[in-house]
Amino acid sequence: MSGALPAPLPAKCNMCRKIADKGYKSCSDCRKKQNAYRKQKKDRIKLGGATFMFDEKTTVEHNPSSSSSGLKRKAVEELDDTLERMKKRLQKKRVDASSEDRMAFGTEFQTAEEMHHEVKSLIRKNKRLNYKACYSVVADPDCNVAKRAKQVTRDIRKISRVPFNHKATIATPTQSSSLHALKFRCTCTSEQKPVDKHNAAAGSASTPDRTSCQGEVEITVMNDSRHPSGIAGQQIRIHIHH
Fold this sequence. Notes:
Number of domains: 3
Strand content: 15-25%
Distance between the termini: 135 Å
Structural class: alpha+beta
Radius of gyration: 44 Å
């Protein structure tokens, strides 16, 4: 008989012991499962734990320990708190910016004395004036916006020496619990030379005629909530146009 060696048996899969594919140590089905397992293992690490299905028969469930689950939950809660704080901070900045724009009015002074001094100087120097100014004070529970407006009206006449008819407004006051606005007629006079053809022909000088400038003085008091510590305030505005 011939001494030829028998043909080698086909290699078996090192996982399921079926016939392995040529050139591989495992069958195609096992390689697919192994590749799926590796891929989903990476996904499991990213997601922090889940149940993964490889095929109809194989299920791998990842159950994180109670300690790791607690750490994850704590991290999520801390992240939520941080995001909530950032959201509130952003909203506050938007509100503050909106409040700043709404409260901007002409020249803003630190005190009433500074404003009265400036207004008094301008009234003396300028025959024509269109001036806006404001300042803020701490709100007094016994002095609402209407009372404050009356006080400022008196101070504008006596301290700043602005001439206007404080006894009667020229428009219905704008008033609410947070704002009170008054508008008065300016009583300063301007010189106008009357047209006199006879005197002009004779070459004589005409006498100046003094008339009201018909200007306006507006005083507004409104709530001011811009204080960084939340202290309630009132903003006083004046608008002189004559």
